[in-house]
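Lab notebook page, bench 4
Experiment: in silico fold of construct C2
Operator: M.H.
Input chain length: 211 residues
Purpose: comparison with the prior construct
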Amino acid sequence: MSFEYPPAPVPVRATQAKLSEAVTGCRACDLWEGATQAVIGEGAKDAEVMLVGEQPGDREDIEGHPFVGPAGRVLDQGLERAGIPRDDAYITNVVKHFRFRARGKRRIHQKPDRWQINACLPWLHAELEVVRPLVLVCLGATAAQALLGSQVRIGRDRGRPMDSDLAELVTITTHPSAILRAEDEDREEAMAQFVSDLENVANWLSARRAA
């Protein structure tokens, strides 16, 4: 006998505060059972840029904030080098609970399954409605394929405008964790490519403001 999970309890007239409160009671998939807490997005109410990753990591799950672990430090560096203040952006993930497998005392990241992503997408769509960013940046394949379709490929499509009505500019780049996983000799180049993709966003915003 299969168990049916309830839909995500997204508020009808959402605000950032209402989303933050409501997400704590989400049982739309099974990931809440092992996680410490749900982690909703954070950032400026009128953010021009929304960045979307895959899911909270170990530190995010413990602290309750997105991108505060090692990948978050890489993201901070990339945004700073590209001239995009993190305080002016809204940062979130497709999935709001940490999926992992235990290895001793360590919790090892596991990619969420498609059904778990689909169960969580109403939260992300609500965040998009609340923030209404000019630019949407998908960090990594999970976010890009969840929002733009399974045909998206990071290596082929990164850094360029994507056909989507989710924001005026929708683009994709690698997830910061991929930079951390790169071999030492490749990490500098991977970071430079990441910064270049974010610089495209900064340049687009500058051109739009000047128009």
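Observations: Helices lie at 16-22, 58-63, 70-82, 114-131, 141-148, 154-157, 176-181, 184-210. The two ends are 59 Å apart (CA to CA).
Next step: discuss at group meeting.
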